[in-house]
Amino acid sequence: ERLVMTDPSGEFAPLADRRGVAWFSHGACSAVACRMALAKFGPGIVIANIDTGVDAQHPDLQVSTDGSLKISGFRDYVNGNGSLQPGNSSYDDNGHGTHTAGTQAACGGIKGVSPGASLMVYKVLNAQGAGVVDHITRAINDAVADGCRILSMSLGTAVRIPEWTEAIRRADAAGRLVIVAAGNSGPGSIL
After folding, report:
1. Which of 82, 112, 116, 145 has the fewest CB atoms lying closer than 10 Å?
2. Is pLDDT of 5 > 60?
3. Can you list the alpha helix ranges (DSSP code H) found in the chain?
4. Helix locations, 43-128, DSSP H
5. Side by side, which strands form the sheet with 177-182?
6. Integer CA distances (angstroms), 135 to 51, 78, 143, in order
7. Where is 72: in which H helix or E strand?
């Protein structure tokens, strides 16, 4: 697979020194995650949406192409303890996670890039889009344990977070594809 990152001009450039982690501009993160997922794993894969949550009532996020529920599970680290909940309990008090989920896997009047994929939702960001390092680290680790093949994180920070680096490296070692937005804020890389 081709690993790329964006430079300040927004152009994609090869990133040969990192294995299994791809970096994209904020707007491209979700779409690229799905395109790479389809190429690597085929339809029916499970994508971890690590963000502000997803509105389980959204009409385009109800079912996959095979008729199964689109959101297979939900973990809330912001207003809960991160325990696994049914997918229909997922919510989004910000809207960003629902937007990225739609780009990834909508299957209704609007089609996402991978309408046959299912989603595991990890709510790590609050209504203002802010989060806690520990919640995001736990979500990365839980997504691997939950069997997600793709981890999509459209978030950023002004500093490098060693805990995220280690969690992402463990995900990579477990054969997961981790898609992280670069350019939201901060140094452009969390590794």
Report:
1. 145
2. no
3. 29-41, 96-105, 133-145, 162-173
4. 96-105
5. 21-25, 177-182, 150-153, 46-51, 118-123, 71-76, 84-85
6. 11, 8, 12
7. strand 71-76
pLDDT digits (tens, 9 = 90+) for 26-35: 445 556 655 6
Helix (H) or strand (E) segment spanning residue 185: none
User: Phi and psi at residue 108, in whole multiples of 5°?
Assistant: -155, -135
CA distance 60 to 25: 25
* Nearest CA-CA partner of 115 in 16, 34, 176: 34
Dihedral angle computed from the Cα positions of residues 145, 140, 112 and 185, in that order, rounded to the nearest 10 degrees: 180
* Residues making up the chain, counted from first to last: 191
CB 152 within 8 A of CB 49: yes
pLDDT digits (tens, 9 = 90+) for 106-157: 998 988 888 888 999 999 999 998 999 999 999 999 999 999 998 999 887 7
Of 123, 148, 147, 143, nearest in space to 135 by CA: 123
Q: pTM value? A: 0.81
pLDDT 10s digits, 60-82:
999 988 888 999 999 999 999 99
